[in-house]
Amino acid sequence: MSYQNFSLKQLQEIDAAHHLHPFTDHKDLRGAGSRMITRAEGPYIYDSEGNEILDGMAGLWCVNIGYGRHELADAAYKQMKELPYYNSFFRCTTPTPVLLSKKLAEIAPPHINQVFYGSSGSEANDTALRLVRHYWALEGKPQKNIVISRHNAYHGSTVAGTSLGGMSAMHSQLGGAVPNIVHVMMPYSFELAQPGESEHDFGIRAAKAIEDAILEHGPENVAAFIGEPIMGAGGVKIPPASYWPEVQRICRKYDVLLMLDEVITGYGRTGEWFAAQAMGVEPDTITTAKALTSGYQPLSALLVGDRISSTLVEKGGEFYHGYTYSGHPVACAVALANLEIIEKEGLIERVRNETGPYFNQALKERIAGHGIVGEVRSFGLMGAIEIVKDKETRERFPDEGSAAVVVRDHAIANGMMLRATGDTMIMSPPLIWTRQTIDLAVERILKALDRAERDLRK
Ligand SMILES: *Cc1c(COP(=O)(O)O)cnc(C)c1O
Q1: What is the pTM of this model?
Q2: Statement: residue 51 has pLDDT above 70
Q3: All domains of the chain, ordered by start, with CATH?
Protein backbone atom coordinates (compact mmCIF):
# COMPACT_ATOMS: atom_id res chain seq x y z
CA MET A 1 0.00 0.00 0.00
CA SER A 2 1.52 3.33 -0.99
CA TYR A 3 0.92 6.49 1.02
CA GLN A 4 0.83 8.36 -2.26
CA ASN A 5 -2.76 7.22 -2.72
CA PHE A 6 -3.70 9.49 0.18
CA SER A 7 -3.87 13.27 0.32
CA LEU A 8 -1.97 15.09 3.07
CA LYS A 9 -5.26 15.93 4.73
CA GLN A 10 -6.34 12.28 4.71
CA LEU A 11 -3.04 11.16 6.20
CA GLN A 12 -3.32 13.81 8.89
CA GLU A 13 -6.82 12.64 9.76
CA ILE A 14 -5.75 9.01 9.99
CA ASP A 15 -2.74 10.08 12.04
CA ALA A 16 -4.94 11.98 14.48
CA ALA A 17 -7.39 9.09 14.73
CA HIS A 18 -4.88 6.29 15.34
CA HIS A 19 -1.37 7.45 16.13
CA LEU A 20 -0.28 8.63 19.57
CA HIS A 21 2.95 10.62 19.14
CA PRO A 22 5.86 10.82 21.58
CA PHE A 23 6.25 14.03 23.63
CA THR A 24 3.13 15.58 22.12
CA ASP A 25 0.07 17.45 23.36
CA HIS A 26 -2.61 15.52 21.53
CA LYS A 27 -5.16 18.25 21.87
CA ASP A 28 -2.80 20.64 20.08
CA LEU A 29 -1.98 18.01 17.47
CA ARG A 30 -5.65 17.56 16.56
CA GLY A 31 -5.92 21.29 15.97
CA ALA A 32 -2.77 21.85 13.93
CA GLY A 33 -2.28 18.50 12.18
CA SER A 34 1.11 16.83 11.91
CA ARG A 35 3.95 17.89 9.66
CA MET A 36 4.49 15.04 7.21
CA ILE A 37 8.09 14.36 6.20
CA THR A 38 8.11 12.05 3.20
CA ARG A 39 11.67 11.81 1.94
CA ALA A 40 15.21 13.01 2.52
CA GLU A 41 18.50 13.28 0.70
CA GLY A 42 21.92 14.34 1.99
CA PRO A 43 21.40 17.19 4.49
CA TYR A 44 17.80 17.93 3.41
CA ILE A 45 14.39 16.64 4.40
CA TYR A 46 11.29 17.16 2.27
CA ASP A 47 7.70 17.41 3.46
CA SER A 48 4.60 16.19 1.68
CA GLU A 49 4.14 19.62 0.09
CA GLY A 50 7.57 19.35 -1.50
CA ASN A 51 9.20 21.94 0.78
CA GLU A 52 12.94 21.48 1.18
CA ILE A 53 14.16 21.90 4.75
CA LEU A 54 17.81 21.91 5.86
CA ASP A 55 17.91 19.48 8.76
CA GLY A 56 19.75 21.26 11.57
CA MET A 57 18.92 18.43 13.99
CA ALA A 58 20.13 15.36 12.02
CA GLY A 59 16.69 13.84 12.54
CA LEU A 60 16.78 13.64 16.30
CA TRP A 61 20.54 13.95 16.90
CA CYS A 62 21.16 10.75 14.96
CA VAL A 63 21.54 10.98 11.16
CA ASN A 64 25.27 11.76 11.32
CA ILE A 65 26.09 10.57 7.79
CA GLY A 66 23.09 12.30 6.24
CA TYR A 67 20.18 10.79 4.36
CA GLY A 68 19.99 8.54 1.32
CA ARG A 69 23.09 6.39 1.92
CA HIS A 70 22.57 3.30 -0.17
CA GLU A 71 25.45 1.44 1.51
CA LEU A 72 23.31 1.12 4.64
CA ALA A 73 20.25 0.00 2.72
CA ASP A 74 22.36 -2.59 0.92
CA ALA A 75 23.85 -3.88 4.18
CA ALA A 76 20.36 -4.30 5.66
CA TYR A 77 19.01 -5.99 2.53
CA LYS A 78 21.90 -8.43 2.35
CA GLN A 79 21.64 -9.33 6.04
CA MET A 80 17.85 -9.69 5.92
CA LYS A 81 18.09 -12.17 3.07
CA GLU A 82 20.86 -14.18 4.74
CA LEU A 83 19.60 -14.10 8.33
CA PRO A 84 16.98 -11.53 9.34
CA TYR A 85 17.02 -12.45 13.00
CA TYR A 86 18.45 -14.71 15.55
CA ASN A 87 18.90 -14.06 19.26
CA SER A 88 22.04 -13.83 21.33
CA PHE A 89 20.57 -15.46 24.43
CA PHE A 90 21.54 -18.91 25.73
CA ARG A 91 25.09 -18.98 24.32
CA CYS A 92 23.98 -18.18 20.76
CA THR A 93 25.06 -15.29 18.62
CA THR A 94 25.27 -14.17 14.99
CA PRO A 95 28.27 -12.75 13.12
CA THR A 96 27.36 -9.05 12.83
CA PRO A 97 27.13 -8.22 16.56
CA VAL A 98 30.41 -10.10 17.04
CA LEU A 99 32.18 -7.99 14.43
CA LEU A 100 30.52 -4.79 15.59
CA SER A 101 31.67 -5.44 19.16
CA LYS A 102 35.25 -5.80 17.95
CA LYS A 103 34.97 -2.56 16.01
CA LEU A 104 33.48 -0.70 18.98
CA ALA A 105 36.25 -1.98 21.27
CA GLU A 106 38.77 -0.61 18.76
CA ILE A 107 37.32 2.89 18.61
CA ALA A 108 36.38 3.18 22.30
CA PRO A 109 38.91 4.34 24.91
CA PRO A 110 41.50 1.58 25.55
CA HIS A 111 40.03 0.36 28.87
CA ILE A 112 36.63 -0.34 27.26
CA ASN A 113 36.35 -3.70 25.52
CA GLN A 114 32.85 -5.12 25.98
CA VAL A 115 29.43 -4.21 24.57
CA PHE A 116 25.82 -4.90 25.59
CA TYR A 117 23.19 -4.22 22.92
CA GLY A 118 19.65 -2.89 22.97
CA SER A 119 17.41 -1.06 20.54
CA SER A 120 17.32 2.41 22.11
CA GLY A 121 19.21 4.79 24.32
CA SER A 122 16.59 4.37 27.03
CA GLU A 123 17.12 0.61 27.06
CA ALA A 124 20.88 1.04 27.17
CA ASN A 125 20.59 3.30 30.22
CA ASP A 126 18.30 0.76 31.85
CA THR A 127 21.03 -1.82 31.23
CA ALA A 128 23.68 0.57 32.58
CA LEU A 129 21.76 1.19 35.80
CA ARG A 130 21.17 -2.50 36.39
CA LEU A 131 24.74 -3.37 35.48
CA VAL A 132 26.42 -0.95 37.91
CA ARG A 133 24.18 -2.13 40.73
CA HIS A 134 24.88 -5.74 39.79
CA TYR A 135 28.60 -4.94 39.75
CA TRP A 136 28.60 -3.61 43.30
CA ALA A 137 26.51 -6.55 44.49
CA LEU A 138 29.07 -8.94 42.94
CA GLU A 139 31.78 -6.97 44.70
CA GLY A 140 30.01 -7.69 48.00
CA LYS A 141 28.65 -4.15 48.40
CA PRO A 142 24.95 -4.39 47.48
CA GLN A 143 24.17 -1.29 49.58
CA LYS A 144 26.37 0.79 47.27
CA ASN A 145 23.53 1.46 44.85
CA ILE A 146 22.74 5.19 44.79
CA VAL A 147 23.23 6.86 41.42
CA ILE A 148 23.85 10.59 41.25
CA SER A 149 22.53 12.42 38.20
CA ARG A 150 21.73 16.07 37.42
CA HIS A 151 18.73 18.34 37.18
CA ASN A 152 17.50 18.64 33.62
CA ALA A 153 19.49 15.62 32.44
CA TYR A 154 17.91 13.52 29.70
CA HIS A 155 18.54 9.79 29.89
CA GLY A 156 15.52 8.49 27.98
CA SER A 157 11.86 7.95 28.55
CA THR A 158 11.40 4.48 30.04
CA VAL A 159 10.83 4.31 33.80
CA ALA A 160 14.56 3.91 34.46
CA GLY A 161 15.48 6.54 31.86
CA THR A 162 13.03 9.05 33.30
CA SER A 163 14.20 8.27 36.85
CA LEU A 164 17.85 8.78 35.90
CA GLY A 165 16.90 11.93 34.00
CA GLY A 166 16.29 15.19 35.78
CA MET A 167 13.36 16.62 33.84
CA SER A 168 10.81 17.74 36.41
CA ALA A 169 7.87 17.64 33.98
CA MET A 170 8.64 14.00 33.18
CA HIS A 171 9.04 13.10 36.86
CA SER A 172 5.68 14.70 37.61
CA GLN A 173 3.99 12.03 35.45
CA LEU A 174 6.05 9.11 36.74
CA GLY A 175 4.05 8.16 39.80
CA GLY A 176 7.15 7.07 41.64
CA ALA A 177 10.70 6.94 40.34
CA VAL A 178 13.20 4.08 40.57
CA PRO A 179 14.57 4.44 44.12
CA ASN A 180 18.04 5.63 45.09
CA ILE A 181 18.64 8.13 42.30
CA VAL A 182 19.48 11.68 43.36
CA HIS A 183 19.98 14.83 41.31
CA VAL A 184 22.43 17.70 41.68
CA MET A 185 22.98 21.01 39.87
CA MET A 186 23.86 21.07 36.18
CA PRO A 187 26.96 22.84 34.80
CA TYR A 188 25.04 25.63 33.04
CA SER A 189 26.92 28.86 33.53
CA PHE A 190 24.58 31.05 31.43
CA GLU A 191 21.94 30.84 34.15
CA LEU A 192 23.72 29.46 37.20
CA ALA A 193 27.10 31.19 37.41
CA GLN A 194 27.29 33.94 40.02
CA PRO A 195 28.12 37.49 38.97
CA GLY A 196 31.87 37.71 38.50
CA GLU A 197 32.39 33.93 38.83
CA SER A 198 34.79 32.66 36.15
CA GLU A 199 33.89 29.74 33.88
CA HIS A 200 36.66 27.75 35.53
CA ASP A 201 35.42 28.38 39.06
CA PHE A 202 31.84 27.70 38.06
CA GLY A 203 32.87 24.32 36.59
CA ILE A 204 34.64 23.37 39.84
CA ARG A 205 31.61 24.45 41.88
CA ALA A 206 29.21 22.42 39.72
CA ALA A 207 31.45 19.36 40.14
CA LYS A 208 31.61 19.94 43.89
CA ALA A 209 27.83 19.49 44.00
CA ILE A 210 28.52 15.84 43.14
CA GLU A 211 31.06 15.54 45.95
CA ASP A 212 28.58 17.11 48.37
CA ALA A 213 25.95 14.54 47.38
CA ILE A 214 28.44 11.68 47.79
CA LEU A 215 29.32 12.87 51.29
CA GLU A 216 25.69 13.48 52.20
CA HIS A 217 24.68 9.93 51.31
CA GLY A 218 27.97 8.30 52.29
CA PRO A 219 30.48 7.06 49.69
CA GLU A 220 29.78 3.49 50.83
CA ASN A 221 26.24 3.92 49.47
CA VAL A 222 27.00 5.65 46.15
CA ALA A 223 27.40 3.38 43.14
CA ALA A 224 27.92 5.82 40.31
CA PHE A 225 27.53 9.25 38.80
CA ILE A 226 25.83 9.50 35.39
CA GLY A 227 26.02 12.46 33.03
CA GLU A 228 25.79 13.52 29.40
CA PRO A 229 29.20 15.03 28.49
CA ILE A 230 27.19 17.86 26.93
CA MET A 231 23.56 17.99 28.01
CA GLY A 232 21.57 17.60 24.80
CA ALA A 233 17.80 17.66 25.14
CA GLY A 234 18.27 19.86 28.21
CA GLY A 235 19.55 22.62 25.90
CA VAL A 236 23.05 21.84 24.57
CA LYS A 237 24.63 22.84 27.85
CA ILE A 238 28.39 22.72 27.46
CA PRO A 239 30.24 22.51 30.78
CA PRO A 240 33.36 24.58 31.46
CA ALA A 241 36.62 22.77 30.63
CA SER A 242 37.30 22.41 34.36
CA TYR A 243 34.17 20.33 35.00
CA TRP A 244 34.79 16.80 33.67
CA PRO A 245 38.37 16.34 34.94
CA GLU A 246 37.14 17.43 38.37
CA VAL A 247 34.17 15.02 38.18
CA GLN A 248 36.60 12.23 37.31
CA ARG A 249 38.83 13.15 40.24
CA ILE A 250 35.88 13.13 42.66
CA CYS A 251 34.57 9.78 41.39
CA ARG A 252 38.01 8.20 41.82
CA LYS A 253 38.47 9.69 45.29
CA TYR A 254 35.28 8.04 46.60
CA ASP A 255 35.39 4.92 44.41
CA VAL A 256 32.22 5.92 42.57
CA LEU A 257 31.79 4.61 39.02
CA LEU A 258 31.56 7.13 36.19
CA MET A 259 28.79 6.53 33.64
CA LEU A 260 28.72 8.72 30.53
CA ASP A 261 25.55 8.99 28.48
CA GLU A 262 26.91 9.57 24.99
CA VAL A 263 23.70 8.79 23.14
CA ILE A 264 24.11 12.16 21.39
CA THR A 265 27.83 12.83 21.65
CA GLY A 266 28.96 9.37 20.51
CA TYR A 267 30.21 8.59 16.99
CA GLY A 268 31.84 11.82 15.99
CA ARG A 269 29.65 14.73 17.00
CA THR A 270 32.31 16.28 19.24
CA GLY A 271 35.18 15.75 16.80
CA GLU A 272 36.27 12.49 18.46
CA TRP A 273 34.63 9.08 18.33
CA PHE A 274 33.40 9.73 21.87
CA ALA A 275 33.21 12.84 24.02
CA ALA A 276 35.08 10.89 26.70
CA GLN A 277 38.12 11.32 24.47
CA ALA A 278 37.34 14.99 23.79
CA MET A 279 36.89 15.72 27.52
CA GLY A 280 39.79 13.53 28.64
CA VAL A 281 37.86 11.26 31.03
CA GLU A 282 37.82 7.49 31.53
CA PRO A 283 34.27 6.35 32.17
CA ASP A 284 33.29 2.88 33.38
CA THR A 285 30.30 2.77 31.03
CA ILE A 286 29.40 4.72 27.89
CA THR A 287 25.80 4.63 26.75
CA THR A 288 25.48 4.98 22.97
CA ALA A 289 22.65 4.72 20.45
CA LYS A 290 21.36 7.25 17.89
CA ALA A 291 24.33 7.84 15.54
CA LEU A 292 25.59 4.26 15.95
CA THR A 293 23.46 3.51 12.88
CA SER A 294 22.90 7.15 11.91
CA GLY A 295 19.27 6.35 12.75
CA TYR A 296 18.88 3.95 9.82
CA GLN A 297 18.06 1.15 12.27
CA PRO A 298 17.19 1.20 15.97
CA LEU A 299 20.26 0.07 17.90
CA SER A 300 22.01 0.92 21.14
CA ALA A 301 25.30 -0.23 22.56
CA LEU A 302 26.33 0.08 26.17
CA LEU A 303 30.12 0.14 26.16
CA VAL A 304 31.42 -1.49 29.32
CA GLY A 305 34.83 -0.86 30.85
CA ASP A 306 37.24 -3.59 31.97
CA ARG A 307 36.65 -2.95 35.65
CA ILE A 308 33.00 -4.03 35.41
CA SER A 309 33.38 -6.70 32.75
CA SER A 310 36.25 -8.45 34.52
CA THR A 311 34.14 -8.72 37.67
CA LEU A 312 31.30 -10.24 35.65
CA VAL A 313 33.67 -12.89 34.36
CA GLU A 314 35.55 -13.53 37.61
CA LYS A 315 32.53 -13.75 39.89
CA GLY A 316 30.25 -15.43 37.37
CA GLY A 317 26.52 -15.90 37.88
CA GLU A 318 23.87 -14.96 35.37
CA PHE A 319 23.00 -11.30 34.83
CA TYR A 320 19.22 -11.61 34.49
CA HIS A 321 18.80 -8.98 31.82
CA GLY A 322 18.51 -8.68 28.04
CA TYR A 323 16.25 -7.87 25.13
CA THR A 324 14.86 -9.99 22.32
CA TYR A 325 16.64 -7.65 19.91
CA SER A 326 19.97 -7.41 21.79
CA GLY A 327 22.56 -7.67 19.02
CA HIS A 328 20.00 -7.65 16.22
CA PRO A 329 21.89 -8.88 13.13
CA VAL A 330 20.35 -6.41 10.69
CA ALA A 331 20.83 -3.40 12.97
CA CYS A 332 24.43 -4.46 13.64
CA ALA A 333 25.12 -4.87 9.90
CA VAL A 334 23.84 -1.35 9.33
CA ALA A 335 25.97 -0.02 12.20
CA LEU A 336 29.09 -1.59 10.66
CA ALA A 337 28.34 0.06 7.31
CA ASN A 338 27.70 3.38 9.06
CA LEU A 339 30.97 3.33 11.03
CA GLU A 340 32.82 2.44 7.84
CA ILE A 341 31.43 5.54 6.12
CA ILE A 342 32.28 7.79 9.07
CA GLU A 343 35.84 6.48 8.92
CA LYS A 344 36.28 6.36 5.16
CA GLU A 345 35.01 9.89 4.67
CA GLY A 346 37.01 11.31 7.55
CA LEU A 347 33.88 12.87 9.05
CA ILE A 348 35.27 13.02 12.58
CA GLU A 349 38.47 14.77 11.53
CA ARG A 350 36.37 17.13 9.44
CA VAL A 351 34.29 18.08 12.49
CA ARG A 352 37.37 18.47 14.65
CA ASN A 353 39.53 20.47 12.27
CA GLU A 354 37.19 22.19 9.88
CA THR A 355 33.42 22.30 10.29
CA GLY A 356 33.39 22.37 14.11
CA PRO A 357 35.61 25.46 14.34
CA TYR A 358 33.83 27.08 11.36
CA PHE A 359 30.41 26.46 12.95
CA ASN A 360 31.62 27.99 16.22
CA GLN A 361 33.01 31.03 14.43
CA ALA A 362 29.81 31.47 12.40
CA LEU A 363 27.67 31.42 15.53
CA LYS A 364 29.98 33.85 17.36
CA GLU A 365 30.59 36.29 14.52
CA ARG A 366 27.27 36.27 12.71
CA ILE A 367 24.56 35.24 15.17
CA ALA A 368 25.69 36.29 18.66
CA GLY A 369 25.19 39.97 17.82
CA HIS A 370 21.50 39.61 16.98
CA GLY A 371 19.05 41.64 19.08
CA ILE A 372 17.30 38.68 20.71
CA VAL A 373 20.36 36.48 21.21
CA GLY A 374 21.82 36.30 24.72
CA GLU A 375 24.56 33.75 24.11
CA VAL A 376 25.74 31.28 21.47
CA ARG A 377 27.86 28.23 22.17
CA SER A 378 28.97 25.12 20.36
CA PHE A 379 31.20 22.08 20.68
CA GLY A 380 31.97 20.10 17.55
CA LEU A 381 28.68 20.05 15.67
CA MET A 382 26.37 20.71 18.60
CA GLY A 383 25.19 24.27 19.08
CA ALA A 384 22.84 26.49 21.05
CA ILE A 385 21.40 29.97 20.73
CA GLU A 386 19.87 31.54 23.86
CA ILE A 387 16.84 33.70 23.09
CA VAL A 388 16.46 36.76 25.34
CA LYS A 389 14.42 39.95 25.41
CA ASP A 390 17.33 42.04 26.71
CA LYS A 391 20.87 41.23 25.62
CA GLU A 392 22.49 43.11 28.47
CA THR A 393 20.45 41.84 31.44
CA ARG A 394 19.64 38.44 29.83
CA GLU A 395 15.99 39.00 30.73
CA ARG A 396 13.84 36.44 28.89
CA PHE A 397 10.61 37.07 27.01
CA PRO A 398 7.49 36.45 29.10
CA ASP A 399 5.87 32.98 29.16
CA GLU A 400 8.91 30.70 29.33
CA GLY A 401 9.63 28.74 26.18
CA SER A 402 7.19 30.57 23.92
CA ALA A 403 9.78 32.89 22.31
CA ALA A 404 11.90 29.97 21.15
CA VAL A 405 8.83 28.37 19.56
CA VAL A 406 8.26 31.58 17.57
CA VAL A 407 11.86 31.40 16.33
CA ARG A 408 11.53 27.71 15.50
CA ASP A 409 8.34 28.18 13.50
CA HIS A 410 9.91 30.98 11.46
CA ALA A 411 13.01 28.84 10.95
CA ILE A 412 11.01 25.91 9.59
CA ALA A 413 8.98 28.25 7.38
CA ASN A 414 12.36 29.48 6.05
CA GLY A 415 13.62 25.99 5.28
CA MET A 416 15.63 25.44 8.45
CA MET A 417 14.83 22.69 10.95
CA LEU A 418 15.84 23.73 14.46
CA ARG A 419 14.60 22.59 17.82
CA ALA A 420 13.42 24.77 20.68
CA THR A 421 13.93 23.67 24.27
CA GLY A 422 12.95 26.14 26.95
CA ASP A 423 14.20 29.46 25.56
CA THR A 424 17.15 27.87 23.80
CA MET A 425 17.43 27.02 20.10
CA ILE A 426 19.46 23.87 19.67
CA MET A 427 21.27 22.37 16.71
CA SER A 428 22.90 19.06 15.93
CA PRO A 429 23.55 18.92 12.19
CA PRO A 430 24.68 15.87 10.24
CA LEU A 431 28.47 15.54 10.16
CA ILE A 432 28.39 15.78 6.35
CA TRP A 433 27.72 19.52 6.57
CA THR A 434 30.32 21.63 4.80
CA ARG A 435 31.25 25.29 5.22
CA GLN A 436 28.70 26.09 2.52
CA THR A 437 25.96 24.24 4.40
CA ILE A 438 26.85 26.16 7.55
CA ASP A 439 26.68 29.45 5.61
CA LEU A 440 23.24 28.53 4.29
CA ALA A 441 22.06 27.59 7.78
CA VAL A 442 23.30 30.89 9.24
CA GLU A 443 21.49 32.83 6.53
CA ARG A 444 18.22 31.02 7.24
CA ILE A 445 18.58 31.29 11.01
CA LEU A 446 19.24 35.05 10.81
CA LYS A 447 16.11 35.52 8.73
CA ALA A 448 14.11 33.52 11.28
CA LEU A 449 15.56 35.57 14.15
CA ASP A 450 14.65 38.83 12.38
CA ARG A 451 11.08 37.74 11.78
CA ALA A 452 10.74 36.37 15.30
CA GLU A 453 12.07 39.60 16.79
CA ARG A 454 9.49 41.57 14.81
CA ASP A 455 6.69 39.35 16.19
CA LEU A 456 8.01 39.19 19.71
CA ARG A 457 8.51 42.95 20.11
CA LYS A 458 5.08 43.79 18.70
C1 LIG B 1 17.87 10.32 23.01
C2 LIG B 1 18.60 10.11 24.29
C3 LIG B 1 18.35 9.01 25.10
C4 LIG B 1 17.24 8.05 24.82
O5 LIG B 1 17.41 7.36 23.64
P6 LIG B 1 16.11 6.65 22.97
O7 LIG B 1 16.68 5.93 21.80
O8 LIG B 1 15.16 7.76 22.60
O9 LIG B 1 15.53 5.76 23.99
C10 LIG B 1 19.14 8.82 26.21
N11 LIG B 1 20.11 9.68 26.53
C12 LIG B 1 20.38 10.76 25.79
C13 LIG B 1 21.50 11.66 26.18
C14 LIG B 1 19.62 11.03 24.66
O15 LIG B 1 19.84 12.12 23.95
Answers
A1: 0.97
A2: yes
A3: 35-65+346-456 (3.90.1150.10), 71-344 (3.40.640.10)
